[in-house]
From TrEMBL:
Matches recorded under Pfam families: RelA_SpoT
SMART domains reported for this sequence: RelA_SpoT (SM00954)
Transmembrane segments: none
Domain RelA/SpoT: 45-166
Matches recorded under InterPro entries: GTP_Pyrophosphokinase, NT_sf, RelA_SpoT
CDD domains: NT_Rel-Spo_like
Name this polypeptide is given: GTP pyrophosphokinase family protein
Pathway(s): Purine metabolism; ppGpp biosynthesis; ppGpp from GTP: step 1/2
């Protein structure tokens, strides 16, 4: 196949990966802006390389003309979660989306592969708008915890090194590591609520501080320097107390001060 034809085939998949990553990252931002815990920690994406496609065609005996139909992971998205419980929440989010149509689901978490691999796979249809019009294509989404992702990344590297013929003694080590990953995920689940509360509190405080600093910056344009310095000193004093309630009260007071200056700057009607 000519290089130009490869580009024509893979370009829509590159667009799909960019769009889907943007949508999931925006979902993370929406949760953060509202001071909510997001089940998605990180989003990664890739389009299969030509060499990987050729290897898969050779292994699976797939004709190059059939790759878009028979290779469902030309485009791949990986969603990393903090906790096992978050994975089901992400699956529900995807099931509820109108722009993604699920073709198949594979649960390798409840039914772990013999190698020790654990992850939740969704094959879906996604439509992109191209120069030639809408194109409906397949995409694979993998959802796993950070611990599962660490194991899978190491195992993938070993598969590549040993050309998918990993020695038995290393397989045994990998299985032992997989059991340790299960234990780690289970242990982290026992303190999930405490970790979530801490992260939400941190995000709320970060949003309040950002709002306060934005107000102070705007006040530099309209208030005198002495008043600004007093406000800054008060902010530093309250921030050092590490009390979100106090920060919220200061933020509301600062909003009123800023609103007063904005009202003064409005032209008066004659």
């Amino acid at each position: 196949m000519e290089i130009q034809l490869w580009r024509e085939i893979l370009n829509p998949y590159e667009l799909a990966v960019k769009e889907v990553m943007t949508k999931f990252n925006h979902l993370i931002k929406e949760h953060q802006d509202r001071g909510l815990y997001c089940p998605i920690e990180q989003v990664e994406g890739r389009v299969k390389t030509i060499s990987s496609i050729l290897d898969k065609c050779q292994k699976k005996k797939i004709d190059l003309e059939d790759i878009e139909e028979k290779i469902y992971d030309l485009a791949g998205i990986r969603i990393i979660c903090q906790f096992v419980e978050d994975i089901d929440k992400v699956v529900e989010i995807i099931r509820g989306r109108k722009d993604m149509e699920i073709k198949q689901e594979r649960d390798y978490i409840r039914e772990m592969k013999s190698s020790g691999y654990r992850s939740y796979h969704i094959i879906l249809y996604y439509t992109v708008d191209t120069l030639d019009g809408p194109k409906r294509l397949q995409m694979e989404v993998q959802i796993r915890t950070m611990a599962m992702n660490f194991w899978a990344t190491v195992e993938h590297s070993l598969q590549y090194k040993y050309k998918r013929n990993i020695p038995d003694h290393i397989k045994e080590r990998l299985l032992g590591a997989a059991d340790a990953i299960i234990t780690l995920d289970n242990e982290m689940s026992t303190v999930r609520s405490e970790i979530m509360d801490a992260q939400i509190s941190f995000r709320i405080q970060a949003n309040i501080v950002a709002d306060i600093l934005n107000n102070i910056q705007n006040l530099y344009r309209v208030a005198n320097k002495r008043e600004i310095l007093k406000i800054q000193d008060e902010f530093y004093r309250i921030y050092a107390m590490n009390d979100i309630d106090q920060l919220e009260r200061f933020d509301r007071q600062l909003d009123l001060i800023a609103e007063g200056y904005r009202a003064q700057s409005l032209p008066t009607e004659e």
